[in-house]
Amino acid sequence: MPQRPEPLLPLGLRLSGRHVVVVGGGPVALRRVGALLLARAKVTLVSPAAVAALEDLADRDQIDWLRRPYEPGDLQGAWLAMACTADAAVNAEVLAAADEARVFCLRADDASGASAWMPATGRSGQATISVHGNRDPHTAAALRDVAIAAVETALRQDPTLSANRRAPVAGFGRVTLVGGGPGDPELLTLKGFQALADADVVVIDRLAPLAVLDGLRDGVEIIDVSKIPRGRFTPQKEINEILVSRAREGRVVVRLKGGDPFVFGRGMEEVIACNEAGVPVEVIPGVTSAAAAPALAGIPLTHRGISQGFTVVTGHAAPDDPRSTLDWDALARGGTTLVVLMGVDTLASIVGALVDAGREGDTPVACVMDAGLPSQEVVLTTLAAIVSSGAPPELRSPAVTVIGAVAAFAAG
Ligand code: SAH
């Protein structure tokens, strides 16, 4: 017979700066410590041994670690205790001491006698969701996922549910620059995803992960300011004006960009424009294509014994173009993996400059096109082949070109 759920008072503990004692140093303790640090708690760990990640947190003074077995008195001053050792007798002792001291205590191995239970938790926009499954963590986690999905659907369908979804109030608008990653919507960060769920207005580029637009709630204004090379183009000044004017109307504006907003993304110009207009602005970093495109093609930018670093440059101005301020001789000799963005039209000229400066002709070159999209394609060639026959005929924009020994790892 299923047990009747025990009556509980679910609370949201505000632990910032408050002392919490975690007894035990294994993976369970690690999970708890991670959650406690996110809540800004002051954590003391009590355990003779700890997994490496906990030891590292202690080394970096993120937590205090008493490197010894639990002793009576260790809960002194704590607001909350967590008994997470692998030893039931120790956990029982910690719980008894906590009860004696009137400190709420979770017990990992056997929650039946504990004074507090850990819910399964998650977040969606402004909502924190916590689910108790009558002490069955699997039920709780499954129901938590259902609850998050339901909240997300409800927020999309009924804008009035979110605190941010009130009618626009002049003076309360803001702008969030979201790095969208290389194009696969699953490579958008959780934080970026949440910012999008809150948006009244989304201002996008063509290289932003367009598939996420489909999931936005009804009624969101979408403004496309793509700058297509040699094609349609919205001047940066106009983009800045769109961001500022929409925010001044009291709207929540997300500027969704490809990759990371600050890697050849002109993000700082938008931040400055907002600052000058007195509009609050926040930046959420993204997975830059400079790193993601190689990784998605199986190329490590650094590899022990082969490459001790990488240099990311724009190829929009060819080496012989007076607008290029890069020292291509130094780049050729630098010994790092070279990552070229915006270098489709100029690739042959860039390769010529590198070879002239002494980079070996057999150096592998990988061009990764449409990284993270269903149309992703990789071409592997060499500097010498490009010098003799020009850029690969398949090469098209957008592409990230990797030049260096590691490019040979490319999986076609
Ligand atoms: N802020 C972006 C870069 C903007 S510049 C970032 O951090 O990724 C635009 C250039 O980025 C393109 O010309 C191309 O070189 C590269 N790029 C962006 N997305 C790409 C993708 N999905 N595949 C290949 N290259 C990409």
CATH superfamily of the largest domain: Tetrapyrrole methylase, N-terminal domain
CATH topology of the largest domain: Cobalt-precorrin-4 Transmethylase, domain 1
Residue-averaged pLDDT: 92
Helix amount: 25-40%
The main sheet comes to: 5 strands, parallel
CATH class of the largest domain: Alpha Beta
Give start-end ranges of low-pLDDT stretches: none
Order of strands side by side in the largest beta sheet?
Answer: 3-2-1-4-5
What are the main properties of this structure?
single chain; 412 residues; alpha/beta; Rossmann fold; Methyltransferase, Cobalt-precorrin-4 Transmethylase, Domain 2; 3 domains; 5-stranded parallel sheet; 11 helices; globular; binds S-adenosyl-L-homocysteine
Describe the structure.
This protein is of the alpha/beta class and 412 residues long. It has 3 domains: 100 residues, NAD(P)-binding Rossmann-like Domain (Rossmann fold), CATH 3.40.50; 125 residues, 3-Layer(aba) Sandwich (Cobalt-precorrin-4 Transmethylase, domain 1), CATH 3.40.1010.10; 120 residues, Tetrapyrrole methylase, C-terminal domain (Methyltransferase, Cobalt-precorrin-4 Transmethylase, Domain 2, 2-Layer Sandwich). Helix content is 29%, strand content 20%. The chain has a 5-stranded parallel beta sheet with strand order 3-2-1-4-5, sandwiched between helices. β2, α2 and β3 form a beta-alpha-beta unit. α6 crosses α7 and α10 crosses α11. The longest helix is centred in the middle third of the chain and has 21 residues. It is globular and about 80 Å long. The chain starts with 18 loop residues before the first strand and ends in a 9-residue tail after the last strand. It binds S-adenosyl-L-homocysteine. The site of S-adenosyl-L-homocysteine has 26 residues, from α8, β15 and β17.
